[in-house]
Amino acid sequence: MAVETIRILCEDPATVNYGRAVLEVSKKGSQLRFTILYAGLVKTTIKPTEIKGDILKKLNKIAWSVSNVNARRGPFDIYTAERFMPRGSCVQFGEPISMMLALTSTTLQVRTQLVPAVSWKTQIRRYYELNDLYKMIKPCPDHLLDAVFIGLYAP
């Protein structure tokens, strides 16, 4: 049985604490093995208040950042991220996060999979209690662990 290895750029988007991870995932039969090649926070994001002004410089900076991660850690077989679904008081974050996801996807030009939080979290909760995992990784931001799980959900 052949081993298939893929490289995934995975993200948990936010206007603050935007998690990004790069995974190398190997699959042999039903066995899945992975290595975290990189995990960190995205420094340049779009804030809701910036939407009203001229954001071209910010968009260029984000596109450069994506191109840079692709050059340093890619090429990627898949780009996957949590699909932001605004609810309640988080409605104002929908537009900037959607812009960042679209910009990343079009910059990379690879297979893109946007995953609702409920999908990957339901799958993870079959095996682990997320709040316990978040406590274990402190002071690391929750968004980094989420990015890794989103990446593992993708293949």
Summarize the structure in words.
This protein has 155 residues and is α/β, with parallel strands linked by helices. The chain has helices at 56-73, 94-108, 117-125, 130-137, 142-153; strands at 4-12, 18-28, 31-42, 78-83, 111-116. The model has no long low-confidence stretch (mean pLDDT 87).
Kindly provide the radius of gyration, computed on alpha-carbon positions and rounded to a whole number of angstroms: 16 Å
Please trace the helix and strand order, writing H or E for each element.
EEEHEHEHHH
- Largest sheet, order of strands side by side? 3-2-1-4-5
- How large a portion of the residues is in β-strands, by DSSP E? 25-35%
Structural class: alpha/beta
Number of helices: 5
| Biggest sheet architecture | 5 strands, mixed
Provide the residue-averaged pLDDT. 87
Strand runs, count: 5
Shape: globular
Fraction of residues in H or I helices: 40-55%
Offer a quick outline of the entry.
By secondary structure, this protein is an alpha/beta fold.
Question: How are the SSEs placed, and which strands pair?
Answer:
Elements: E1 4-12, E2 18-28, E3 31-42, H1 56-73, E4 78-83, H2 94-108, E5 111-116, H3 117-125, H4 130-137, H5 142-153
Parallel strand pairs: 1-4, 4-5
Antiparallel strand pairs: 1-2, 2-3
Helix pairs in contact: 1-2
